[in-house]
Structures
1.
Amino acid sequence: MTRVRPLRVLSVGHAYVVSLNRATLRHIAADPAFDVTVAAPRVMKDELRTIVIESEPDGSPLTVVALDAYLTQQIHLFVYNPSQITRLLRDGAFDVVHIWEEPYVCAGFQLARAMHRRRLPFCFRTAQNIAKRYPLPFRYFERSVWAWCTGWIAGASLVFDAMVGKGVPKEKGRVLTLAVDGDRFRPFDEQEKNQVATRLGLPRPIIGYVGRLTEAKGCEVLLDILRRLDPAEPWSMLLMGRGPYQARFESLARELGVGDRVTVMLLPHEEVPDVLPIIDSIRPPQVNRTPVLGPTPAPS
């Protein structure tokens, strides 16, 4: 009886520099029907920190390939080492490729063009939920990737609708939200919540946020909540991230006399599961029908 070989899958993306972001592929690779390789920048720099590609845990079924990358501080402009991409595709003999880069950025176009030239079936993932018209050459990049791809993945239903509205073939798309590693992210009981909140000096209920502090991430919503909260009631706000809105948050908190209630901390990705579950999902009565933001997905 002839044994069918496993499907050889390559997934490429800058988010894979963080081991936690490979959890979904780790679970897929545990199935003997798949042989999964993950490629990511050897070093990724952004406005928050520099990350050297993290190693896989012992016993991981994944093959991880570190690629040289350039201009990683400019997410729209960064690219991978082209000769290393060529060598990876030549040696890997992959059956299908998943690209976790936006189709309009340089890296996304670079990878898509490499697959197109080799006639490799590939899909890309997008999280863009606004139908933007990009300037050249980014508009050309996006249109080319749409034309070449075998399929595409939308990070949410609004993303799917926005892309279809721009003319992306609907029949090629699927909605796949980001997964959560249930081995690392789990709910805390009340005792655990209180212990961590006390250690961090945060009175409950706790309003939480994870990600870059920018207008595009909805930080204006948090600022509006901050204005509405009654300082006479017990509460605190925990912002796990950094960004240009940090100074605005801290300034407004001081003006409102609650500067000691707002805590901003930049946690390493691996520490987020140890803090995120203390965020409360209830609505304190002093918030005039404005819902408190509950737990949010871990950052990519």
Note: The chain has a mean pLDDT of 89.
2.
Amino acid sequence: MAAIDVIKWEINDKEFCHKYPSDSISLGAQLIVYPGQTAFFVRGGKICDRFEPGTYTIQSDNIPILDSLINMPFGSAVNDGGAGKSKSPFKAEVWFVSGIARLDLKWGTPVAIQLEDPRYNIIVPVSAFGQYGIKINEPRLFLETLIGNMQSFTIGQVEAYVKGKMLAHLNGIIAHKITEDGISILDINSRLAEMSGVCQEALNRTFASYGISIVGFSVISVSVPDDDPSVVRLKEAKDMAARIRITGRDIYQMERSYDVLEKAAENEGNGGQMLSMGAGLGVGIGVGNTMGNMAGSYLESGLQTPPPVFNKTYYVYVDGQQIGGLSAEAIMQYVKSGKTDMSTLAWTSGMQNWAALGTFPEFNHLAASDTDVPPPVPDVK
């Protein structure tokens, strides 16, 4: 292969890194490094010299490694046309790395992340998406850690590699930020700018060892499915907390009392008859006061918002699978249908470890007993 006289790489929108197609270089050749590029001479898998943007004439006095390279046999010398000097060819690879950022790349969670709202303790599915950019900020480190003996490293290859690692880390970063700051998932869209900065900082720590930096990272939206039962419960909990903050505890207790009275009056049977006779009034107020006092006790304990009523959910381990988001009523149906029993492992928020259903006080009444089987028919004589 003939020795080359000009070595350069025209920047394009498809490659981050490019290996010059010829490794036959002669003294006196010109190396052109465009703005935004860095060039490297590589010999035997080892990086020898680095060139920043500019035009260079390849000579032994400006490239120290050439002192050893040009003394290696490489065919015959090439005469420079009578000037009395020879252009001795030598073998070396020339790699170019682009430092221009690739922007407007998209990211999104492929499946919803299951996150527990730190304020209301309800697990809901969360999806997020946004955009980001990639920039090679340490060209030598990038070349040494990722390229190997490839001929080039396309933007698509870098994007696929970065996005895979990025999504694996984002779940944990977002969950940690929400928990650390006590942000309700329903309020997170008001903190997107802050969330974006935290994510970019954490991701850059991850990719620093590859010479890659993430630029312009942004979380555009965090969403939950409106029709999901857990999201409905979460919104109800937030509404109830807002009502207590706005109206105060006493008015909230009164409203709850009226709600109980109205529901009792709608029921048919003895309850309705008692109300019509006036006897149900005291019962309704008693129940309403009890529920109001429950809400009040949460406020007195120092919590800003009370936990929602009857929103406790459970996880059970059945046939080697974890089934979650079950209400107490669903657990009872599982036991009655034989899908689970009192030895089935279960877990709910606040527990450190899984435990048998039989250890949950709320399910003690489901334990098998003699009352589940009719007694013997009496001997009537």
Note: Residues 370 and 376 are 11 Å apart (CA to CA).
